[in-house]
Design a protein that fits this description.
about 250 residues
């Protein structure tokens, strides 16, 4: 199945490198489980935050998580929706490929995943949600003081984005995205817990006749780093006002 994974990286995924698949981890990879260590996370954000003048730690962590969740969602959803495979993404079995700054640039997998089989409906996303996102987001929030909702919003933003992008993939079949869309439309998970990926994005008045404006459910707080300001999908109405007016308020 390793070869099957490599066939995914065309169309909307053409700019991504396929994940490595090897039972022997490379020396240049980091165990994802290390992200649960507060000291490791602090060192990671010191390194990653240098490019932002070591600004607000909450914003630095949010920006790091956006890169991480983007890579994670792209690979996880491609395998899940296009190949019906559940990748080994739990923190204790996944390794990360990082840039010198500590940004997640790729995944290193022990194996090419398992067939989803009976894991239909929302249960097919359990590994991603409970095995990776939930424990990592708890650690990110505890280490930085940022709300867990910020990190879940970042994860949901990329989950929704790649679900839409994969609909244009050459290997996509009719109805391919329905399980992921059903997850985002459900207020609760199969066990009754609140669904943190519920409607992470909304589409409002169009910026062009055929293109609604995409708005995140929650702000990513990148504006706490002065030179970055607000992202293009920011839900905060105040971002539309001139900076002088915001400061005056």
């Amino acid at each position: 199945m390793t070869q099957a994974l490599s066939t995914l990286y065309i169309g909307p995924l053409a700019g991504l490198a396929p994940p490595r698949v090897s039972a022997a981890p490379g020396a240049d990879t980091l165990s994802a489980r290390d992200l649960l260590d507060p000291a490791r996370l602090a060192a990671l954000f010191d390194c990653f935050g240098a490019q932002y003048g070591h600004g607000d730690r909450r914003a630095v962590a949010s920006l790091w998580s956006k890169w991480h969740f983007s890579a994670l969602s792209a690979h996880a959803l491609a395998a899940n929706l296009l190949l019906e495979r559940d990748l080994p993404l739990r923190l204790d079995e996944l390794r990360l490929i990082q840039s010198p700054e500590g940004q997640t640039t790729g995944l290193s997998l022990r194996h090419a995943g398992r067939p989803l089989g009976e894991l239909d409906g929302l249960a097919r996303f359990t590994t991603l949600l409970d095995g990776h996102l939930a424990p990592l987001i708890e650690a990110l929030a505890a280490t930085t003081g940022a709300s867990p909702k910020v990190f879940w919003s970042n994860a949901g933003n990329y989950f929704e984005y790649f679900v839409g992008a994969l609909a244009e993939h050459p290997m996509a079949s009719p109805g391919m995205a329905e399980p992921a869309q059903a997850l985002m439309e459900s207020r609760t998970l199969p066990d009754g817990r609140r669904n943190p990926l519920y409607r992470p994005v909304r589409y409002v008045e169009p910026v062009a006749p055929d293109r609604p404006r995409r708005v995140r459910r929650l702000c990513c707080i990148r504006y706490l780093i002065e030179e970055l300001g607000y992202c293009a999908n920011c839900p905060l109405e105040c971002r539309r006002a001139p900076r002088s007016a915001r400061e005056a308020g």
